[in-house]
Amino acid sequence: MPVVKGSGLEAAGPLRYAARMRPPLRSGRFRSLPVTLGAALLVTSAQAATLDFGVSYRAPDAGLWGRVGVSDLDLLGGQVSAALSSRAAQVGYARSLSLPPLGAATARTDLAVTWQGGVRVDSRASAGVGPVALNLAGAYFTAPITDVDPLAPFAQAPADLRGRGWNASLTARYRVNRTLIAVLGGELGAQPQLSVGVEGRRVLTRAVTVEPEPAEPDLTAAPEPAATQPDAPEVAADPAAAAADTPETGPLGMDDTLPDTEPVGTLTWRAGALAGRDVLGLTGGVSYATENGLSVGVDALAGLNSFGVTGSLSAPDLLGDGSSVRLYAAYEPWRTVSAPLRTGVNASLPAGSGTLTLDASAGRTLQGQSGFGVRVGYTLPLP
Predict the structure, then answer these.
(1) pLDDT grade, residue 223 (50/70/90)?
(2) Is residue 35 scored above 60 in pLDDT?
(3) What pLDDT does 304 receive?
(4) Within the chain, what is the greatest distance between any pair of CA atoms?
(5) Chain-wide mean pLDDT for the chain?
(6) What is the arithmetic mean of pLDDT over 286-291?
(7) How far apart are CA 138 and CA 105, in angstroms?
(8) 158, 331 in Cβ contact below 8 A?
(9) Contact status, residue 161 vs residue 180, Cβ threshold 8 Å
(10) 284 within 8 A of 270, measured Cβ to Cβ
(11) Which end of the chain is more exposed for a tag (fewer CB within 10 A), N or C?
């Protein structure tokens, strides 16, 4: 829904490699980073859970990028990731904790250092305390996110495209009952916002008719002797026994046995309000997901000088067993630090021992300039 989607941290993705090689570090404090991180990748690659490679191209100003990295490496009590490109280096650390009797908590921090001296620090954490779930995110940066991920401007989640600044967001979700959740969210930074809303869920089912299997005749039984005269109708000597032999009926004489049902999908609806700098309006949305993984959703914002709409469609196994395809589109002209128009497609499919991914996106920047980007990647899990 077009309420607070975070501070753009979701869009912080892998590093890229520029076709036109920029000069390495100009200052001594960063000169040893490529060698250090490169050695770390070689030393730890044997223990890494996943190796990933990627090539990206964004027009009109980013050119060709490439990357190599490792992720899900068990180290220091958590999971470590690292990646290198000609424009930046990135390391990340994630850890999950169990805090009884409060619940579980997870946290992740990513640090990116560009060869021009800029840094980006993104952190996010989530925790559950009884019926309350909390999500906290924050970022501080002295370099634009496009120096780390060239496709970030047109990603589904809005990204903060400023070259320097900070932002933070907090979302609290309270489970009222099994089908209703109250949501409260806020964001600080270039465009402060506050959102409130509710979410409901309903599982849709359909009746299943189970036909009884016909009884197989017993070919070993002796045939009954033919009657010489019609039998008289039997009269039950015990009325209670006769009643016990009849099926149970309801007050109207109908069978009380409920028909078998099976789930066919889940319908989710959302409603709320969003208020902040340059935005004020009501929000609403609906999503539907089938049991086989097909899902579709749309959200809208309407208010005083504020309008926006977002939508997505996901389909599993469209390109073969184990594949996935996701389409998305977002038009949010009220955003002041993120691209107002974002569209794209994400696809993945098994290839050999790993997974081949394809991401394509396009849209319009804050300056009204159109652009597009394409990324091809390959992830290879290691023993």
Answers:
(1) low
(2) no
(3) 84
(4) 115
(5) 80
(6) 95
(7) 16
(8) no
(9) no
(10) yes
(11) C
SS3 per residue for the chain: CCCCCCCCHHHCCCCCCCCCCCCCCCCHHHHCHHHHHHHHHHHHCCCCCEEEEEEEEEECCCEEEEEEEEEEEEECCEEEEEEECCCEEEEEEEEEEEECCCEEEEEEEEEEEECCCCEEEEEEEEEEECCEEEEEEEEEECCCHHHCCCCHHHCCCCCCCCCCEEEEEEEEEEEEECCEEEEEEEEECCCCEEEEEEEEEEEEEEEECCCCCCCCCCCCCCCCCCCCCCCCCCCCCCHHHHHHHCCCECCCCCECCCCEEEEEEEEEEEEEEEEECCEEEEEEEEEEEECCCCEEEEEEEEECCEEEEEEEEEEECCCCCCCEEEEEEEECCCCCCCCCEEEEEEEEEEECCEEEEEEEEEEECCCCCEEEEEEEEEEEECC
Closest-CA residue to 163 (of 143, 191, 181): 143
Residue 48 reports pLDDT greater than 60: no
CB proximity list for 119: less than 8 A, separation 6 or greater: 111, 112, 113, 141, 142, 143
Residue 83 in tokens: 């990646």
Q: What tokens were used for 172?
A: 């609290």
Length of the chain (residues): 383
Tokens 């389409």 belong to 327
Token couple for 242: 């006769």
Locate 360 and state its tokens: 């394509």
- What pLDDT, on a 0 to 100 scale, did the predictor assign at position 309? 97
Residue 177 tokens read as: 């009952």
